[in-house]
Specification:
33% helix; alpha+beta; globular; 9 strands; 7-stranded mixed beta sheet; 7 helices; two-stranded antiparallel sheet; single chain
Amino acid sequence: MDVPDLVPKLLEVYADGAFPMADARTGTIGFYTADPRVLVPLDESFHTPRTVDRDIRRARFRFRTDTAFEAVVSGCARPRRGAEPEDAWLDGTIAGWLVELHHAGHAHSLEAWASDENGDEALVGGIYGVSIGSAFLGESMFHRARPRRDDNSRDPLDGTGASSACLVSLHRHLRDCAYTLFDAQIPNPHTERFGLREVRLDDYRRSLAKAASDPDRWRPLPA
C-alpha cells in the first residue's frame, strides 16, 4: 500500500470485517474474515473469571492507554510459548501499519504496568486494537511472566495474568466510552472463558457498519 493511502485503505478493510495476517512461510500478507465472528459482549453477560477479578481488586497492575502502543504491538508479535516461528501472523509490515493507524488516532493500546521494590516500573502486559466509530476491533494481547523467587514469592514484575486483566479493564473502559461493538475475531480457549459469543459474518458486518458510522468514541483511560 502507498503510504499516503495507507490509513484510509486499512480502515476500509477493517470496516468491511477483514483483518490482515502475515504468512511467515511465504512472506505474504492476506486479508481474512471469520465466519462465525466472535464478539465480546458489552453487557452483563460478560464474565470476569474469579482469578482475574482478584488481580484487579488487589491492584497488581496499573492500567494506562496509549502510553506504549508500539511496545504492546511488539509484545504481541513475539512467538508464544510452544509456538513455531512459522505460526507468527504479526510481522514488521503489519506492525508498521498499526503504528500508522495509531498515529492517525484509530489504533489504541491498554497496558498493564508493575513496579518492583525500588520503584522501577515495567510493562508486563497489554492489549491493542483498531477503533472505528463505536466499534473496537481487538487484535491481540500479551503478558510477560517471570518465575517465582527462591522463597516461592511472586516477583513484583511478574506479568502472569496481565493480558486477562487488560481484557477486562478494556471491556470496562469501552462500556464507559459507550462503544457498541467489541470484536475478538476468532475463538480461542483463553478468551472463551469470558463469555464471548459467536455471530454469523453477515450479522457481524451489519452491526459493524452501523457502529462504524458513529462518531469516534475513544478517550484516554482516566488516571
